[in-house]
DUF4835 family protein
Amino acid sequence: MLRKLFSIGILLVWCVAAQAQELNCKVTVKRIDSRDRAITGVDPELFTNMQRAVTELVNSRRWTTDDYATTEKIDCNIFITITGNNIGGDPNTFSGTFSIQAARPVYNSSYTSTIVNYVDRDLTFKYSQFNPLNFDDNRAFGSDPLSSNLTAVVGYYVYLVLAMDYDSFSPLGGTNYLKKAQNIVNSAPDNIKGINGWQAKENNRNRYWLVDQLLNQRFQEARNFWYIMHREGLDSMSMKPTDARARIMTNVKKLYQVNRENPNSVAIQFLLSSKGEEFLRMLEATPRSERQQYISMLAVIDVPNSNKYNALK
C-alpha cells in the first residue's frame, strides 16, 4: 500500500502495523441559540454525550480493509453545530451544520496539507441520549431514517476524507471510497420530511452531486491534478522546491479546463476549499513575470480567493 510505504519513509523505521482504525478525529458538538431559534427542552448533557458517541463511531470503526499503524492515522476535525430543535414537535430532533477538516503529512517535513475543508449546511437528525451510534454500509438509514441521518452524514464524509487521502497517494486511488459514499446516497429515502441533501432534485450542490461529480469521467483530470499536487508536488518540495512548485502550477490548467467545461461545479469547489492558502504561497514564490497566467486561472476557478490572487499580480 503506497500510503503505508510513504509513512514508513517518514519514520525511517520499519513498523509492524497492528490492525487499527484509520482516523484520529476530534469531534466538537456545540449549540448556538438565537432569538428566533432557541434550543429548548433538552438536557445540556445530551450534547456532551452526542460528541462522545460520534467520536467513538468515527475513531473506533474500521472504515477500510487496510491496516493502519498509529502514526498513519488521518488527522481530522468534525464540528457539529446545533442551531435548532423541536422539529415536528420532537425536542430530540435537531438541525444545524456539519463541518469537516482533514490533513495528510507531506514527505520529509513537519508540514501537513489540508485535503478536506468543507461545511455541509443541510443537517437534520434525531438523537436520543445514551443510545449508541451505529453505521452499516448496507443499511445506512436503517429502520428509522431520521435517527440514522446523523450516522449516514458522518459515514459519507468519512469516505470522502478517505477518498481524498488515497487519491493524493495514487492516481484515482480513492475511487472505492467514493463509491461507498455514493452507496450511502443511493440508499437515502425519498420524500421523508427533514432528510435533505441526498437527492439530485433538491439542488445542484448537495451530497448527491458532490460524489456524483467526483466519480464522473468529466472530473477525472481534476482528481489527477490532486495526485500531482500532493505526490509529485508537495512531497517533492523538500528535495526540489522549484521543480515541485512548477509541476503543481503548470498543471493548474487541468483544473481550469475541467471548471471551464463544468462551471460552478460543487466538486471543484470542494477540492479548492482546502487549497487556497497553498496556492497563494506558491504564487508568492513564483517569479512575478510567470505569475499572471496562473493568477488568471486561479481567480476564475477559486472565486472566494480571487482578490487575494489578483493582489499578487
